[in-house]
Amino acid sequence: MNFIDNLGLTIFGTSEIAIAIVILLKIIAITLPLLISVAYLTYAERRVIGLIQLRKGPNVVGPFGLFQPFADALKLMSKETILPTGANKFLFLLAPMITFVLALIAWAVIPFDENNVLSDINVGILYLFAVSSLAVYGIIIAGWASNSRYAFLGALRSAAQMVSYEVSIGLIIISVLLCVGSLNLTDIVMAQKDIWFAIPLLPMFIMFFISTLAETNRAPFDLPEGESELVAGYFVEYSSMSFALFFLGEYANMILMSAITVTLFLGGWLPPFDIFPLNEIPNFLWFVIKVCFILFIFLWVRATTPRYRYDQLMRLGWKIFLPFSLLWVVLTSGFLVLFDLLPQNM
Amino acid sequence: MENIVVSTALFYLFSGILLLASVGVISTKNPVYAVLFLILAFINSAIIFLFLNAEFLAMLVVVVYVGAVAVLFLFVVMMLNVSQEERKNRFQKYTPLTLLLGVVVFLEIAYISISDDAYLTELSKTKNLSFKNNTVELGNIIYTDYALLFQLSGIILLVAMIGAIVLTLRSRVDTKKQNIKKQVDVKKSDVIEVVDVKSGEGA
Question: Could you give the maximum distance between any two Cα atoms of chain A, in Å?
Fold first, then answer.
């Protein structure tokens, strides 16, 4: 980011058009690696699950199967786009775009390093919360516009599930914010300089991770897709590039949710201890390592847990996570007031 | 100078979209389109809040109205099959009432913006929203000056919530429920009986 700033300054100067060009370059510098990591996340998923299930996974295309994502992309692009009869064409094509764009725009506020963020806004965490609460629209519009029973049932399941788990995610975020005293993501990371929030707020960390599984419709909460009863859920009618956009959006959302988890609980770009061999590793690399770790847990969970039944999913969200996170908000604020630890940086 | 021109142009762009979307909400025949127009209107009003430097309110509008309320609207509207004829009749029936409401609200807003009533200016303690961190400022105002009103609105919401639950809750006798505690408490000895059966003698 700073590199692009300097480059822009030397080449284009400081006029307003130059600033616009620099921002455009930054957006590309975030989006391009993100799309490549999405491609390789699909590869990693199949390899990791293959290893867990004592299979090989994709290992034919290129060395160790490393070109498999590109082969898949070529296959998807060369397929025919099918518009089902009776589908609402405009909304049918709009839905995958909404999903994909929402998965990308949230990255504008994620800090990769100190002063290394596209847009360092005051209400960063609220922005992320708002964008992730919009993600449900791509799914529900897709389900309705497809004019198909399976797709619609998948969309309804997904909408109810995402709205339910958003409530507990909001409360968990509040208990983190109580310890920070700011909605800015850089401030949230800097508040974890002494201790990562994953340690004092360990139950919240675990619940946040489980809620992100539900929020991204991943196993064991992948009922919206539920292939055994709903074929493929909300995207059953999609093919070719519109399917690819859903697929990319889902995996980009996984990476995004991992990045949010890392920022909130695992100290963002900070090394675990500020001692010699650890603080020599670039901060950005720490961020990537932590995100990869969370992503690995995503895949690990998918390979090892059976799918939840829908009423059990709702029970977990409303009867366990919601009261417990509410209780934890009260406990955290009580603790902070009692020991006079409330952040005083306003 | 150029900045002001650009931001004014953007303001008119977004408020134009907001007005068009609002007209779309009440004029379109398909109720799903109406809700989608409503979402567009909400998002544009959030953007206009951003122009006032009220980024906290902008995000709250998106989280609360677009992320939660409109999802439930869409949810209900997609599952209902509202017939067009019925809608037309109802539209004519309620037109005078809606017009009256619109006029009253318009007059109220006009009065507040024109009059220099001391009481009204006293009521709005935040004349300028462009302070640096309006999340902090809003928190200070809501929890000190307006603490009582804030608590009252919370109670109103609580009552509304209880009312909604009371209206929809009905105890059904024919549903099968899972008793998690009972299920977890089951021991091996409760369900499995090991019996020694001599070969050739078992049933």
Answer: 64
Do the chains contact at A129 and B63, CB–CB below 8 Å? yes
Question: How far apart are alpha carbons B146 and B142 in whole angstroms?
Answer: 5
pLDDT per residue over A61-81, tens digit each? 878 878 888 888 888 888 887
Number of A to B CB contacts under 8 A, please give it.
63
Per-residue pLDDT band for A314 (boundaries 50, 70, 90) equals confident
| B1-83 CATH fold | Four Helix Bundle (Hemerythrin (Met), subunit A) (1.20.120)
A181: number of Cβ within 10 Å:
17
Element (H or E) spanning A276, and its range?
helix A276-279
Task: Quote the tokens at residue A269.
Answer: 């770009």
Domain span at residue A144 reads: 80-338
Amino acid at position A329, single letter? V
Nearest CA-CA distance, residue A136 and chain B, Å: 8
Dihedral (Cα; A107, A112, A115, A117), 10-degree rounding: -10
3-state secondary structure of A5: helix
- Please check whether residue A16 lies inside any domain of the structure: no
- Tell me the C-alpha distance between A324 and A317, whole Å: 10
**Count H helices, E strands: chain B?**
10, 0
Question: In chain A, what residues touch B68 (CB-CB under 8 Å)?
Answer: 133, 163, 166
Q: Are A237 and A82 in contact (CB under 8 A)?
A: yes
Partners of B71 on chain A (C-beta within 8 Å) are: 136-137, 140, 159, 163
Is the minimum CB–CB distance between A128 and chain B shorter than 8 Å? no
Q: Is residue A23 part of a domain?
A: no
Q: A105's torsion region: left (phi>0), alpha (psi -120 to 50) or beta?
A: alpha
The CB-based long-range contact list for A117-120 (8 Å cut-off, 24+ gap) reads A117/A1, A117/A185, A117/A186, A118/A1, A118/A23, A118/A26, A118/A27, A118/A30, A120/A184, A120/A185, A120/A186
| Domain membership flag for residue A31 | no
Instruction: Spell out the residues 6+ positions from residue A64 whose beta carbon is closer than 8 angstroms to its own.
Output: none
pLDDT category at B122 given cuts 50, 70, 90 is low
Q: Which residue of B has its CA nearest to A147?
A: B78
> Could you give the number of structural domains in chain A?
1
Separation CA A281–CA B128 (nearest Å): 46
Say if residues A212 and A146 touch (Cβ distance below 8 Å): no
The rounded distance, in Å, linking the Cα atoms of A293 and A262 is 10
Whether A47 is covered by a domain: the verdict is no
Q: Confirm or reject contact between A133 and chain B (CB < 8 A).
A: yes
Residue A196 Cα distances to A125, A264, B203, angstroms? 17, 9, 64
CB contact under 8 A, A140 and B133: no
Q: What is the pLDDT of residues A7-51, one digit of tens each?
A: 666 666 667 777 788 888 888 888 888 888 888 898 888 888 888
Give me the interface pTM, i.e. the ipTM.
0.80
Provide DSSP, A141-164.
HHHHHTT-HHHHHHHHHHHHHHHH
Q: By C-alpha distance, which of A261, A267, A265 is closest to A286? A: A267
Element housing A121 (H / E) = none
